[in-house]
Amino acid sequence: MIKLHQKSYIAGEWVTPDGTEFLSINPATREVLETYHSCGSLETNAAMAAAQAAFAEYRQCDKDQIADFLNTVADEIEALGDQLLETADAETGLGLVRLTGERGRTCGQIRAFAAIVAEGHWVQASIDTAQPDRTPLPKPDLRRMMIPVGPVVVFGASNFPFAFGSVGGDTASALAAGNPVVVKGHPSHPLTNELFVHAMDRAINHRGMPSGLFSLLQGSTNELGGDLVRHDQTRAVGFTGSLGGGRALMDIAAARPRPIPVYAEMGSINPVFIAEDAMATRGDEIAAGLVASVTMGTGQFCTSPGVVVTTPNEGFNQWVARGLSEAPRGLLLNEKIGEELRSSLRAVAGRDDVEWLNPVEESVEDTLAPPNCALRTSAAAFVADPALQQEIFGPVTLIVECDDTVEMKRVAGALDGNLTATVHATAQDADQAAALIEHLDEAVGRVIYNGFPTGVEVCPSQQHGGPYPASSASATTSVGADAMVRFARFVAYQDLPDALLPPALQNANPYGLLRRVNGIYSDASI
Ligand code: NAP
User: Given 97, 119, 193, 284, which residue has the most CB atoms within 10 angstroms?
Assistant: First the structure.
């Protein structure tokens, strides 16, 4: 068992900051597990300076060294064993089954990045050789590839303590692309953060990596996150969390004297459209699947289906309302999420144009065990008021009733940016499905057919990120192979002698990469 000390970690040293106190709390029992203190500007400056120093050294590592390091990180996370699962369960209440699966996904993603680094193609090498005799002007030799950006600051989310945690996909993709990382630990699970640091510390030492490659600053203040984003040495930010938090950090980054990119993955309402024949022939089945998806993880998924769009069908509404009422109540991650859910629900359900289909009287004690809620509104109300498109983070879904298929299309056209949209349809609904998808792929990152949005497959063809407000940069993904390119940038080298070029661009092609050479893809040497 690793003994935890309620500390932060800067470049290989455990530190005890003296900032604002915050608590690790078990949401199931409300027991205080430990007391932590927030880092401040002293720790921010130390971590960023160490990251900058480590960057120079880390850039000298070849691709196999980085891949070996990442594989060791995954091994060390697994070596934390049951202590990691039990600690995270105590801090989040997510349960051992879910957390075991999330650990597998996290280590799988880290190892996938290692394989991509070892393979090397991700740098997108492109070579146009010189044409000294070209008239009227000679053509220079130009060679372009991706290189790391420099120190990356990462913010994890409360609802994915592993996959989007301290050493989750954002941290792993930034390291894989060749950058040092400074993590702002999520205050909802500081003990879990500390355990991840142990795994990272062992991997860094085992593989002889520079100590400043990774730091983790624990804290519960917006100031800490803001200072990290403002810091002159920070080159990019990876964020997973709420729209409010992501937007605040985007604004800070844009206001810097030297603005930097913030790759923020934020909330989403993930609309589910049900076409006419699908509703008529299997509305009950869709209702059951919807209830399971809405209640999964107590609705605390960025891909939770928060909106259902269909023509009116009382039977369907009742199946959904009854199913949600009968489903066991889950547990919320923390008091802040509980408070936000209560106030959002109160605001939406209190509107004249919204009906709560399965209302319950709530007592104060129930804040972390919320009811599973079905709400109903009209398409006209939904289209008229953007407030109805705001994410309610929890087990809540809003059924938007449309007069006809034309109005369903109008709703699809009025959607804000989302991570996903789903269409349930049969062969009879082909025209309606095509008309909906035409609108939906403009508004979302992933279009799903006859499924449900919860459950994000981790593979190279995954797109996890959609137009704002789902993400800050919809051209990128935070899951899958291409997540790495968020933390890299293109550089072109003009007329450099072969020996001064990075290996990926040298004539001999020592890594055997697939390169675009004079416009044609080839793995041959030049
Ligand atoms: P959160 O409250 O935004 O917290 C995320 C991190 O940002 C925390 O470290 C938080 O720490 C910091 N933060 C929040 N507001 C800040 C501000 N104004 N200035 C500086 N730092 C700030 O989000 P959460 O509760 O952890 O996560 C739930 C949300 O994440 C949901 O909306 C969910 O949909 C979304 N999510 C999205 C994805 C995705 O892939 N798109 C995945 C998972 C979750 P402090 O509070 O200490 O500042």
Answer: 193
